[in-house]
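User: My collaborator sent over this chain with a note saying "see what the structure looks like." That's all I know about it. Can you take a look?
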Amino acid sequence: MKNYKMILAYDGGRYNGWQKQGNTDNTIQEKLEGIVSALAGCPIEVFGSGRTDAGTHAYGQVANFHMEWDGSEERLMDAINEKLPEDIGVLSLEEVPPRFHSRLSAKAKTYEYTIWNSKRPPVFERKYVFWCEKPLNVEKMQEATKLFLGEHDFKSFCANKRMKKSTVRKIYEIHFHCTEDKITISYYGNGFLYQMIRILTGTLIEVGEGKRQPDEIPAIFAALDREKAGFTAPAKGLALKEVFYGEGQEEYDTNY
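Assistant: Without extra context I'll predict from the sequence alone. Here is the result:
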């Protein structure tokens, strides 16, 4: 059995997230497994680097699967793409060592959240941005992000109230890229909790609107209470940008 790694892009707008579920087959994982299993002639499980939420997009999701295949890597990639719907695509595919696992081997990830900050509606980008009409104070938002950097217990920024595993994560970098109408926030960290980036972003938006002050962030961390943080920004503004693999970083459950 060969182990194949693929990098995927998808528009998550009409899917119930990455992970397959018992009550629906409308997930990215389900679509891929159906196609790969048909090509293999037997059930094949496809492992993703993380469980992107319903409505969340990806430019660089990583997945792997084991199967027997006599053809080339390029032919396998083409065969999968021929069967996929137009809003999911395999960008690259290669054979990797047997022990590689897209989630367990991941060391860090970058996500991007895009805000449309204008009174003009985002007609052509409405499916991929969160429209915030009120002008945001980006300098205040950047001031607040400094308090997110480093290793913290992000329990207040996790939507899973029954989380039993560690809620400690480490954010290495947060960058802002601003144009006339858009603010894109890039988060680079060793792992993220359920809806963590969307809650961080919602909190930053509230800072940008003047509803919160940056110096309130330490108290939110200390509370270990989801209710103390900001709102959960909509999934459509979020995209998984890249997954990193390598040695020398801490091991965390990087499901998201």
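A starting point for your reply to your collaborator: Confidence is low (pLDDT under 50) at residues 248-252.
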